[in-house]
Design goal:
about 85% helix; elongated; 4 helices
Length: about 120
């Protein structure tokens, strides 16, 4: 799960950075505010890469997805991109857990077969 979720988060890191560049063009938003919010969100993406397998990591990832969708208030394209990344996050969590379960099952089978061969 960690690999799939981390890949999604790194993609979001870049999307947030590009959205920050677009948001700077808005005369109603100050540059410092845009980069403060974008910087915090980008740092959260990187930190979540290491926390995704810990308790609450997936929930924080969902909170980030909601924030990404809400950033559509400043950059309307982010409504679409936020929804796309929320879908990718869902798929990363779902299929990542399936891959983790399959790896654990294969490891248990390999351990049993090596124990049977040794006996």
């Amino acid at each position: 799960m960690r690999t799939l979720c981390s890949s999604t988060l790194i993609g979001e890191f870049f999307i947030i950075g590009f959205a920050g560049l677009v948001a700077m063009k808005d005369p109603d938003l100050s540059t410092s505010t845009v980069w403060l919010v974008s910087g915090i969100a980008m740092a959260l993406c990187v930190l979540l890469c290491g926390m995704v397998t810990r308790p609450g990591g997936v929930a924080l990832g969902w909170a980030l997805q909601l924030g990404l969708i809400a950033s559509g208030l400043a950059v309307p394209t982010m409504y679409f991109l936020g929804a796309v990344f929320a879908g990718l996050w869902w798929a990363s969590v779902r299929f990542g857990r399936q891959v983790d379960a399959a790896k654990a099952r294969f490891a248990a089978e390999a351990e049993q077969s090596s124990a049977a061969d040794a006996a």
